UniProtKB/TrEMBL annotation:
Recorded superkingdom: Bacteria
Main location class: membrane
Membrane topology: Multi-pass membrane protein
Cell compartments where the protein resides: Cell membrane
Transmembrane segments: 20-41, 187-208, 245-263, 283-307
Protein name: Cell division protein FtsX
Matching Pfam families: FtsX, FtsX_ECD
Function: Part of the ABC transporter FtsEX involved in cellular division.
Residue intervals of the ABC3 transporter permease C-terminal domain: 191-309
The keyword Ubl conjugation is annotated on this UniProt entry: no
InterPro entries found in the cross-reference section: ABC3_permease_C, FtsX, FtsX_actino, FtsX_ECD
UniProt subunit comment: Forms a membrane-associated complex with FtsE.
C-alpha cells in the first residue's frame, strides 16, 4: 500500500511540473551525453596514440649536394651540412652505430634519394613544386623503428650534429598537433558539460522546491499522522531520480547514435579515414552504465539536499 502511494505521488509530481520535468530531462541528457562523449574522446585519443606511436619512425636525414651548397641553383649550404654531402664512410659509420643500439632500435631501413623522390611524388604529385623537384634534390635517410617510441632523445642526442647528418626528426611531433587539438576539444566538452550539469542541478533543486510547495498540505497531514521524514521525502527524491534516469537513457541514445552516425553510417569516417583506429562499439557500451548510474544518483542527491532546506519534517 505504501509503495502504491509513493508511486502515485511520483506520477502526480511529474505531471504537475511537466514543463520543468522536461527541462530537467533535457539538461541532464545533454550534460551526460557530453560527459560520455568526453570519456570516449579521451579513449579515442589514447587509441590513436597507441596506434600511431607504434608505427611512426625516427628519421635521420643525410646531407646531399644541395644541402652542402653544391646544387645546380647555387643555393647556400645548410649550416648542418657546411662540411659537405654525406660520404660512404659516414653512412657506414652511422649504420654501424645504429646497429649497436639494439636495446632501443627495432629495425633500420635505408631510403635512397630515388625512393624518397618516388614517395614524394605519390604524396604530392599534384602540387606545383612536385614538377620541378628532381631525385638528386631528395635526401637519403635512415628510417628507424624504435622498440620504445619514448626513447627518441637517445637517437637525437647520438646523431644530431654529426658530420653528414642534416637533421633528426621524430614523426611523433607531426602527430602531436592533432592530439593537442583533440585534447583541447575534450577539455571544451568537459567545460560545457560542467555548465550543463550546474544548470541541471539548479533545475532539479527548483523543481523539487516547487513540488514541495505545491504539496505542502499533503506533507503537513502526513507529518501530523506520524509519517517518517524518509517516507515524506521519498516521492520527491524518486521524481528527481526518474527524471534523471530518463535523461540518462536519452544520453545513452545520443552516444549510440553519435557513434553510428559518425563512424559507421552517415559520415562513414571508418571508410573515409581507414588510417585512423576508431574506438569500437564495446568502448561505447562500456560507458553507458556509468552514464545511467550518474543520471540516477545525481538528481537524487540534489533532491535530498534541496528537501533538507525547503521541506522541514
Amino acid at each position: 500500500m505504501r509503495a502504491q502511494f509513493v508511486l502515485s505521488e511520483i506520477g502526480v509530481g511529474l505531471r504537475r511540473n511537466l514543463t520543468m520535468t522536461f527541462a530537467v530531462i533535457v539538461s541532464v541528457a545533454l550534460s551526460l551525453a557530453l560527459f560520455g562523449g568526453a570519456l570516449l574522446m579521451r579513449q579515442q585519443v589514447s587509441a590513436m596514440k597507441d596506434f600511431w606511436y607504434d608505427k611512426v619512425n625516427v628519421t635521420v636525414y643525410l646531407c646531399n649536394k644541395n644541402d652542402a651548397g653544391g646544387g645546380a641553383a647555387g643555393a647556400p649550404a645548410t649550416p648542418a651540412c657546411a662540411k659537405g654531402a654525406v660520404t660512404a664512410a659516414q653512412k657506414k659509420e652511422i649504420k654501424s652505430d645504429l646497429d649497436e643500439l639494439t636495446a632501443i632500435v627495432d629495425k633500420v631501413y635505408f631510403e635512397t634519394s630515388d625512393e624518397a623522390y618516388k614517395h614524394y611524388k605519390e604524396l604530392y604529385g599534384d602540387s606545383a613544386i612536385a614538377s620541378i623537384i628532381t631525385p638528386d634534390q631528395m635526401q637519403e635517410s635512415y628510417r628507424i623503428k624504435l622498440k620504445d617510441p619514448e626513447k627518441y632523445q637517445v637517437i637525437s642526442t647520438a646523431f644530431a650534429g654529426r658530420a653528414g647528418v642534416h637533421s633528426v626528426q621524430d614523426q611523433r611531433e607531426e602527430l602531436e598537433t592533432l592530439f593537442q587539438m583533440m585534447r583541447g576539444m575534450n577539455v571544451a566538452a568537459l567545460c560545457v558539460m560542467a555548465l550543463m550539469l550546474v544548470i541541471a542541478l539548479l533545475l532539479i533543486v527548483n523543481t523539487v522546491r516547487v513540488s514541495a510547495f505545491s504539496r505542502r498540505r499533503e506533507t503537513g497531514i502526513m507529518r501530523l499522522v506520524g509519517a517518517s521524514s524518509f517516507y515524506i521525502q521519498m516521492p520527491f527524491i524518486m521524481e528527481a531520480a526518474v527524471a534523471g534516469l530518463l535523461g540518462g537513457v536519452v544520453a545513452c541514445g545520443l552516444l549510440l547514435l553519435g557513434r553510428y552516425f559518425l563512424i559507421d553510417g552517415g559520415l562513414r569516417l571508418a571508410e573515409t579515414m581507414p588510417v585512423v583506429n576508431f574506438i569500437g562499439w564495446d568502448a561505447v557500451v562500456a560507458v553507458l552504465p556509468l552514464v545511467l548510474v550518474i543520471g540516477l544518483l545525481m538528481p537524487s542527491l540534489a533532491a535530498l539536499i534541496a528537501l533538507r532546506k525547503y521541506l522541514k519534517v
